[in-house]
């Protein structure tokens, strides 16, 4: 079975793909100090609880945090007896190479989003991914990742207000009833929530105008549903898009035999 690992700047998601469906997904905070043995104790316990057999034969990793890859490689070697595919490394093929400036290394999560979106929707797509950053990933007609937009994430923005202003408390995101807040918390929620609605509307409109062809907008990431229910910002919301993209990239590598060659 295939283990997909999507390591973001805040959280790391592990998901087991049996060739047809994800049997389970588990989430842990991203910590560069976590060792292979710690990962394994955590993962094997959760797999046991969920009744998922421990027969991982292949692993594919997307990591926006380079330092965690070493320990994840040790995990694969020591406990699963395999060498993982790491998106963005030269030996991991992509179905369609990105078209960006020379020397630029797009985030592997964005490459996975592009592969997942192209597989499901066939190009001319914008993926809006709400993680630590809120990024807009533009996927061309042929499936190439061609760039996009990186803006500060929702929780990062809330945290920055709290850190930077002595009188502002830490606030969780939610949809305020009104735009004009009558207490501090409501004012912050309004600024971030409605500010984000404006940001998403404005950036997707500008991307569409600049791109010059009709485009689908797909929301993904933990907060996509919160924004999707407020306004019609997205054509669809797909919470498993990055993981799906990892499966697509894995299949492509398998079909092009680089995995067998290395084995
Ligand atoms: N209503 C909500 N309020 C606050 N946080 C929420 C809400 N709904 C979902 N989330 C958060 O969204 C997060 C899941 O988002 P996602 O995995 O896309 O990004 P992340 O883990 O924060 O970032 P990264 O992928 O960059 O590490 C979870 O941490 C979850 O707590
Ligand atoms: C933008 C983030 C942080 C989103 O997770 C990640 O994709 C990343 O670190 N990207 C590297 C720079 C780039 O994508 O151009
Ligand atoms: K993510």
UniProtKB/TrEMBL annotation:
The active site is at residue 109. The keyword Transmembrane helix does not apply. A monovalent cation. Ammonium or potassium. It is found in: Cytoplasm. K(+) binds at residue 129. It is an enzyme of class 2 (transferase). Keywords: ATP-binding, Coenzyme A biosynthesis, Cytoplasm, Kinase, Metal-binding, Nucleotide-binding, Potassium, Transferase. ATP binds at residues 6-13, 132. It holds the Pfam family Pan_kinase. Pathway: Cofactor biosynthesis; coenzyme A biosynthesis; CoA from (R)-pantothenate: step 1/5. Substrate binds at residues 107-110, 184. Its cofactor is NH4(+); K(+). GO terms for molecular function: pantothenate kinase activity. Its EC number is 2.7.1.33. Catalyzes the phosphorylation of pantothenate (Pan), the first step in CoA biosynthesis. Homodimer. PANTHER family: TYPE III PANTOTHENATE KINASE. This is Type III pantothenate kinase.
């Amino acid at each position: 079975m295939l283990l997909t690992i999507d390591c973001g700047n805040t959280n790391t998601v592990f998901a087991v793909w049996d060739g047809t469906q994800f049997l389970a997904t588990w989430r842990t905070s991203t910590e560069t100090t976590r060792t292979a043995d710690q990962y394994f104790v955590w993962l094997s316990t959760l797999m046991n609880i969920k009744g998922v057999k421990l027969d991982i034969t292949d692993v594919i990793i997307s990591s926006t945090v380079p330092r965690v890859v070493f320990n994840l490689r040790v995990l694969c070697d020591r406990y699963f007896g395999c060498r993982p595919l790491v998106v963005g490394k030269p030996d991991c093929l992509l179905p369609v190479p990105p078209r960006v400036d020379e020397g630029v290394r797009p985030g592997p999560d964005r490459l996975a989003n592009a592969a997942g979106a192209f597989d499901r929707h066939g190009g001319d797509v914008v993926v809006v991914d709400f993680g630590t950053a809120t990024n807009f990933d533009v996927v061309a007609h042929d499936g190439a990742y061609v760039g996009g937009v990186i803006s500060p994430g929702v929780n990062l923005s809330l945290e920055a207000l709290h850190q930077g202003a002595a009188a502002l408390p830490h606030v969780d995101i939610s949809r305020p009833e009104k735009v004009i807040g009558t207490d501090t918390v409501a004012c912050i929620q309004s600024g971030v929530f409605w500010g984000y609605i404006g940001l998403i509307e404005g950036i997707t409109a500008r991307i569409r105008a600049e791109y010059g062809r009709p485009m689908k907008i797909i929301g993904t990431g933990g907060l996509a549903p919160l924004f999707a229910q407020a306004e019609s910002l997205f054509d669809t919301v797909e919470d498993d898009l990055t993981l799906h993209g990892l499966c697509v990239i894995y299949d492509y590598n398998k079909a092009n035999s680089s995995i067998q060659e290395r084995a």
